[in-house]
Amino acid sequence: MKAKDLKKKYLEFFKKKGHSIIDSAPLIPEHDPTVLFTTAGMHPLVPFLMGQSHTLGTKLANVQKCMRTGDIEEVGDTTHNTFFEMLGNWSFGDYFKEEAIEFSFEFLTKVLKLPISHLAVTCFKGDKDAPKDEVSANKWRELGVAAERIAFLGKKDNWWGPAGETGPCGPDTEMFYWTGKGKPPQKFDSGDSKWVEIWNDVFMEYDKTKGGKFVPLKQKNVDTGLGVERVTAVLQGLDDIYLTELFWPIIKKVEELTGKKYNKEKKVMRIIADHIRAAVFILGDERGVVPSNLDQGYILRRFIRRVVRHFRSLGADVNKNKFTVILAELIIKIYEGEYRLLKEKKKFILSELEKEEGKFVLTLEKGLRKFNQMCSDKKIDSKEAFLLFQSYGFPIEMTQELAAEKKVKVDVKGFEKEYQKHQELSRVGAEKRFKGGLGDASVETTKLHTATHLLGEALRRVLKEDIRQRGSNITAERLRYDFNFDRKLTAEELEKVEKEVNKVIEKGIEVKREEMLLKEALESGARGEFGAKYPKKVSVYSIGNYSKEICMGPHVANTSELGHFKIKKEQSSSAGVRRIKAILE
Ligand code: SER
C-alpha cells in the first residue's frame, strides 16, 4: 500500500467511527512561542485536551506535519526522520482506553490486514505518579495478543508528554511490528530494532504542573500518533523507510548525481533525503521562514548546508549543480497533490534554496581547507570555531560533526561566548557607522530601540496615520521620541498608546532584518525617518506585519524580550512637535 492510500484509509476509518477530520496545523506553531516546530498532532490541540470545547466535537482525526529536531542525530538509520507526517485520532473526554485500543487493533488487523502474529505491545508498568496500566493490557489480551507479546515498561518508554514543560500527559500503550526476516520470535523484546514502533495510544489523564506534580485532568483524553513513513514501509514489507516511494526517487537522484550507490552510502544519502524534505516543508509552510541565524531559520539553514556538504562528501562537484533545487523539485512533485501550498510556493522554495546553497558553496571549499589546518593540533578553539561560522558559514553543529569524524575536540561553550561578544561588537560598530541615535549598545538600549519602533506605530494607530518621527534619543534608562502633533495628548490617549505597545510586546512577534536598495525599501512600504539621508543600500527592520522601518538597528529578535512599556512624560518639544519619554520595566 502506498503512503497516500494509508492516509486515506486512516481518515476514512476514523470518520466512520464518528471523528471529524481536521486539517494539518502549520509546521511552525501559531500559538506556542516556546517551541520551534509542531512535534505531534496533539500539539496544536492542547487547549482542547485541557477542556476547551472544539467546534467540531469531541472526536477528531488528521494527518499532521511534524518536525522533531531532537531526532537529528538518529537520522541515517532505517526509521528516523526530522520532518514526518503523523496520523492521529483524539478523544476529548469522549472514549478512553478500551475503545481507543479497539480502534487501533481493528485498523491494524482489519483495514491494513497486518497479521496479529507480527504484533506486540507495551504498557505502562506503574510508578509513584500513576498505577500500572492493567486496563490496557487486559484489553490487548482480550483481543488476542499473547501474554509474551505484552511488555510493561516505565515512564521513559510508556509515558507521553507534556509536549512542553507543563500540560496534558499520561501513560501510553505502544504497538510494534516485526520487520525481521522469517517468523517473529514468540517473546517480544522491545530492545530488538526489528520490532518497529508503529503506533502510540496516549491516555492523557494528567496535567503536569510547574512544580512537577501530576494532577488528574477533569477530562480523560486519548491522543494517538502513527508515523506515516514507518507504517508505509511496514505495509510494503520493507525494513527501511527510504526504500518507499516517499524517498526512493530522491535517493535514486542522489545516486545519479553523485555516481555513488545507496547500498554503499546509506547513512549519508538518508541524511540528504531527510533534510531536503524537511527544508522544503519549512520553506513551504503556511508560516514558512527563510534561512537565517535565528530559530527556525537557523534549523533550515543547517538542513540545507548539511545537504550540500554531504553532496560534496559523496564526491559531487558542488560548484556544478544546485543540488538542493534539483531534489526539492522531486519532493514537491511527491507531495503537491496533498499540500497545495507547496505548489503555490514552489518558486519561492526553489529560489530560497538556490540562494542559500549558492552562498554556502562560495565558502565551503576554503572553509574545509581552513578547518583541516585548524585540526593539526587536534582541537578547534572558540576563536577558530567562530571564524568558521562567521567567515565560512559553518554552523557550529557542522564544525562539531566534521571534528567528530576526525576525533578532534571543539570548544562549543567558548564559541557561544564568542558569538555573544560579536553580537555586541557589531552593534557598537553599526552605531558608530550610522549614528543610529543610540547612547550605547547595551541590551537595554537595544530593547528601547525596538520599543521606539513600536511606539511610533502605536501613535499612528491611536492618533493619526501621518505621524512621523522628528527625533529620537535613547539611553540605557529611557527612550525619547519626538513626533509631529499639534496638541497635548489626553490621559486616555496616552493610556491607549501604552496598551497598544504592550499588546504587541506580549504577542511575542519576531523582529526581522533585511538588506535592500533604498528604492526597494521605500517601494515595499518601509518607513524612513523624516528628512534623513540614507545610503543606497539600507537595512529594513520588520516587526511582524506591525511595523517596517528603514533602520540600522540594533534590535531584539522578538518583542517578547521587551518586558513592560511605560510612558513617563509627554510634553512639547517645539512648535507642532511633541515629545514622549518612556521606559521598559
Ligand atoms: N503524542 C503522541 C506521540 O507523539 C501520540 O501522538 O507519540
SSE diagram, text form:
Elements: H1 3-16, E1 20-21, H2 46-49, E2 59-67, E3 83-92, H3 97-111, E4 119-124, H4 134-143, E5 150-153, H5 155-158, E6 159-160, E7 167-178, E8 195-208, E9 214-227, H6 228-235, H7 248-258, H8 266-283, H9 295-313, H10 323-335, H11 340-344, H12 346-374, E10 379-380, H13 382-392, H14 396-405, E11 409-410, H15 412-434, H16 443-462, E12 469-474, E13 479-484, H17 491-507, E14 511-517, H18 518-523, E15 537-543, E16 547-550, E17 565-574, E18 577-584
Parallel strand pairs: 1-2, 4-5, 10-11
Antiparallel strand pairs: 2-3, 3-9, 4-7, 6-7, 7-8, 8-9, 12-13, 13-18, 14-15, 15-16, 17-18
Helix pairs in contact: 3-4, 7-8, 7-10, 8-9, 8-10, 9-12, 10-12, 12-13, 13-15, 16-17
The structure holds serine.
The distinct bound ligands, ions and cofactors come out as: serine
Give the overall shape.
globular
CATH superfamily assignment of the largest domain?
Answer: Bira Bifunctional Protein, Domain 2
- Low-confidence parts lasting 5 or more residues at pLDDT below 50? 427-440
Query: What is the fold-level CATH name, i.e. the topology of the largest domain?
Result: BirA Bifunctional Protein, domain 2
Total of helices? 18
Q: What CATH architecture of the largest domain do you see?
A: 2-Layer Sandwich
Mean pLDDT: 91
- Rg (CA only): 27 Å
